[in-house]
Amino acid sequence: MHHTVPKLNDPSLLKTNVAYVNGEWVQAKSGKTFEVTDPSTGKTIGVAPEMDAEDTKLAIDAAAAAFPEFRKKTGRERSKLLRRWYDLCVENSEDIARLITWENGKPFADAKGEATYAANFFEWFSEEAPRLYGDTIPASVPGNRVVTIKEPIGVCALITPWNFPAAMITRKIGPALAAGCTVVAKSPGETPFTALALAELAHRAGVPKGVINIISALKNTPEVGELLTTSPVVKKVSFTGSTPVGKLLMKQSSSTLKKLSFELGGNAPFIVFDDADLDTAVAGAIASKFRSSGQTCVCANRLYIQSGIYDKFAESFAAKVKEFKVGGGYTDGVTHGPLIHDRAISKVDAHVRDAEKKGGKVLVGGQKMPELGDNFYQPTVISGMTTDMDLASEETFGPVAGLFKFETEEEVVRLANNTEVGLAGYFFSKDIQRVTRVAEALEVGMVGVNTGLISDPAAPFGGVKESGFGREGSKYGVGDYQVTKMITYGGNEQPLQK
Fold first, then answer.
1. Which is it for strands 300-306 and 268-272: parallel, antiparallel or unpaired?
2. Is the dihedral angle over the CA atoms 353, 354, 356, 361 positive or is it negative?
3. CATH fold for domain 11-264+467-484
4. Which member of 263, 395, 466, 472 is catalytic?
5. Known catalytic residue: 263?
6. pLDDT tens-digit profile of 125-154?
7. Which of 80, 110, 191, 307 is deepest in the core (most CB within 10 A)?
8. pTM of the full predicted structure?
């Protein structure tokens, strides 16, 4: 019943018991390691170095030493490096996908999609690198000339989560390198091997030593995070993860006044109006809610369905969810894999039990699946949701869709915005004026209109309120890794020589 892991085409992409610092594969100075397990089987995949502040400092020093030389490269040179890295990611995308499924659990088809998406950030930012323009500004003082140039901010610390082991890292390293920065990336404790495979490909692409450093830690994560945020050498921190951890990192970063970009928790509303196309709305809800079994920060979390379409939507949606096949990520036909660990299962189950206790009705699912393993949960649909249920205010991060009924546009916008976070929001309607009103009224950084999937390297990704600040991807993505330097040339009003 338990799946076997397919062999990698290139076994040298699996780097166990090492991290990548200053162009070399190194162990933790202490010799300590932690185990990385396959969430489908609970079996150990391998060990990774349990790095501490001392190891982290070496990585920061390597990035600092590489910076003066790397910043001097032209945009075109950096573009070619990123392009070579992109090409290698495409050539090896099947192996990257195998690693993602192995350590993250998502079905292989999803992992292949992520491997492509991850590589596309390198392609996108390789094309941005030569086009990092400044401005020429007309001065208000006669004889003065004002120009701006864009400079790389310096050494950047990048901290990423396990839910997209490849894409979260490429989305940060791509723009950092395009801008001319060097980086220290802390890989997720649950999924370090995908990050190291990317590092191996960067090495083959000829990225100079010290430009990219990838370190790992599990128990020592707080210690590593503290050094990255307080080191005066690090000029910027980019973090994707939970809002509480973001707040802690922000507090720590204030000691050295770092530039920050944070992509934190979401609680995405998904609204279906009576005039929506039912099939489009159901398909959008399936894609948004159940992608990666609900373990993405832009997943639909609260589904608001207008009363006129509510029963039809609930029936059609539940029927689709019944068709899902849950299992190990490499098994043919499996649509949804395990959750990342048993703590995730406990939270999801608690949300379902709480909703049931308060009057919600489970239409599909609602149970753990011990016959498959400790980390599996049935994809679940609950109708009759109310605002006093935990699911209404907390991010579930699991395969549970709660359906709320609403009557008016004004009411649903109020409900949708009634949260401290604001990352993504989705709604379905065919009325162009309503679309305009609602898109502008939602307090989120990203809106999906008549679609449940909004991620694209060309689109600026990020939130408002307690979902953070800064944008990743798109033409705006490099800006967070740059400083704007103004240069004023004075005394140009002398007459021309006769």
1. parallel
2. negative
3. Aldehyde Dehydrogenase; Chain A, domain 1 (3.40.605)
4. 263
5. yes
6. 999 999 999 999 999 999 999 999 999 999
7. 191
8. 0.97
